[in-house]
Amino acid sequence: MKQTKSSEGLYIIVPRQERQMDDKKNRAWAEINTDNLKYNLRELNKVIPENGQIMAVVKADAYGHGALEISRILSAEGVQAFAVATLKEGIQLRQGGIKGEILILGMTDTKCASTLKKWNLTQTIIDFNYAKKLQEENVNVKVHVKIDTGMGRLGEPYNQRENILKIFQFTNLSITGTYTHLCAADSFEPYDVAFTYRQIKRFYSVIDKLRCSGISLGKIHIQSSYGLLNYPELHCDYARIGIALYGALSRENEILKTKIALRPVLSLKSKVALIKDLNEGDTVGYGHHFIAKKQTRIAIVSIGYADGIPRNLSCEKGYVLLHGQKVPIIGNICMDQLIVNITEIQNNVVCGDVVTLIGQDGNENISPEMFANNTGTITNEILSRIGDRIEKIYN
Ligand SMILES: *Cc1c(COP(=O)(O)O)cnc(C)c1O
């Protein structure tokens, strides 16, 4: 205990800081397997062409894995380029000491030009008008020019040749890269494959024209995870890799052109807070959606939708692992808690037992793909929505 003089001159007691490590497994946490992250990086690097590099996409807190910690590990493993979605995410990496290129994929207000320069961040040119406004800020800013080849999101449309040419003539833009984004590289449907090839063709037709005019384009990049794994023949300077680094694909049982065995990096865990016995007719949770048909034992688990567990896993749509066995989620998932039916479990569950939401427990495993599939979405959404309250433990 430490004594400090208050403003009135009285001595008050300031409790010593609690030990952080023990706190981390008190409620709900993510275990980040850093060996698996390094393994995925090595496997993906084998697919990258010679002279190419991985640009690690660490937006949205590195898909819930912790942006700064993940970037530090990847830096130490030789990654020299990172991508984030926002200015703030970029600054946070710089403040944490991350070196190399940091590309902001999203829109940053052009009024922030000097902030971009101050932190040595590279901004995406999202279209011609944006380039013009950024030029007018009179600050020399590093940028990558984005060409929209069919995604219909950010980028100057590929057929606006004159505008694209003008972007490359703005004197305050220091252009160190040119890129596009594929919108259906995950699919082998004939229409999607044809569309992807059309996007690639549109992109190369634009950049070949620019090169012929003697314009330097900087680093060229097209592929994200699926782009790299399904179109590995493209020889770009960067591949912007997000989900695959974290050892997941967007969906279950997907076929890829490249044979690669990725290892999931994140496990999501929580604890049993309380155990209760219900009699026939007793109900559980908001809207009393669960009604016990017989003597039932339930466990209250300290994780909820504010932590990233989708509410549509309520009422037995989802399950968790406890003592190496599947137990169903019953009733409605709450903001901070959920309830599971442990009647069928032989082992004696006690308060404090670990509950696995994503990951391995005994012989059972819930992969991020299975979890996402249960809620009708993709792993990218599940991982990136893991809430701030989830403590992160790096093993
Ligand atoms: C998020 C994002 C990526 C990473 O995509 P993954 O499928 O996670 O590899 C790449 N490029 C852009 C433009 C993105 O927005």
Main beta-sheet annotation: 9 strands, parallel
Number of H- or I-type helical stretches: 12
The N- and C-terminal alpha carbons lie at a distance of: 32 Å
Low-pLDDT runs: 1-6
Q: Approximately how much beta-strand content do the residues carry?
A: 25-35%
Defining traits:
395 residues; alpha/beta; six-stranded antiparallel barrel; 27% helix; 27% strand; disordered N terminus; binds pyridoxal-5'-phosphate
List the helices and strands and how they pair.
Elements: E1 2-5, E2 11-14, H1 20-24, E3 28-32, H2 34-47, E4 53-57, H3 59-64, H4 67-76, E5 81-84, H5 87-95, E6 101-104, H6 113-118, E7 122-125, H7 128-135, E8 141-148, E9 156-157, H8 161-167, E10 173-179, H9 190-212, E11 219-221, H10 225-230, E12 238-241, E13 266-278, E14 283-284, E15 290-291, E16 296-301, E17 319-322, E18 325-330, E19 338-341, E20 354-361, E21 364-366, H11 368-375, H12 379-384, E22 391-394
Parallel strand pairs: 3-22, 4-5, 4-12, 5-6, 6-7, 7-8, 8-9, 8-10, 10-11
Antiparallel strand pairs: 1-2, 3-13, 13-16, 13-20, 14-15, 16-19, 17-18, 17-20, 18-19, 20-21
The structure holds pyridoxal-5'-phosphate (PLP).
The site of pyridoxal-5'-phosphate (PLP) has 12 residues, from strand 12.
